[in-house]
């Protein structure tokens, strides 16, 4: 694979991060809307959204931002960066497992109000965590 710049790897990492956050956000909205259709008068969907934002903010601050900083340090240490190196290979394996788990949970929760909301909470918190921690990429983008 052709060489890449450190800047291009940071941009790819950030776009990937945003993409994951956006997909999870849309999936969470879809799950909450289905839960609302199952029980229209219930207030739990709103509580799930608020809880997801709070948990996601904590994840962004203490978990995902740390992961972003470690990835940026790794990228900056690359002597001859290649386009595929915007994340470690193990990250892609982990990502594939997480996608498979998310798809499985979503399918298993179909028609089950509490389980649907629990999966929506996971999706919202991860989405907010990813999107909320992306500032690390852009803050470091200026220094590359």
Number of strands: 0
Helix fraction bin: over 70%
Q: Approximately what portion of the residues adopt beta-strand conformation? A: under 5%
Sheet with the most strands, sense and barrel status: none
Overall geometry comes to elongated
Q: Helical region count?
A: 5
Q: Work out the radius of gyration.
A: 17 Å
Provide the low-confidence segments as ranges.
Answer: none
**Average pLDDT number:** 91
Following the backbone from N to C, one meets helices and strands in this order, namely HHHHH
- Alpha carbon gap, first and last residue: 22 Å
Q: In words, what does this structure look like?
A:
- The chain is mainly α.
- It is built from five helices and no strands.
- It has helices spanning 6-38, 44-77, 89-108, 113-133, 135-141.
- The protein starts with 5 loop residues before the first helix and ends with a helix.
Describe this structure in a few short sentences.
The protein has 144 residues and is mostly helical. Helices cover 80% and strands 0% of the residues. Helix 1 runs antiparallel to helix 4 (113-133) and helix 3 (89-108) packs antiparallel against helix 4 (113-133).
Primary descriptors:
single chain; 80% helix; mainly alpha; elongated; 5 helices
Secondary-structure topology with pairs:
Blueprint: H1 6-38, H2 44-77, H3 89-108, H4 113-133, H5 135-141
Helix pairs in contact: 1-2, 1-4, 1-5, 2-4, 2-5, 3-4
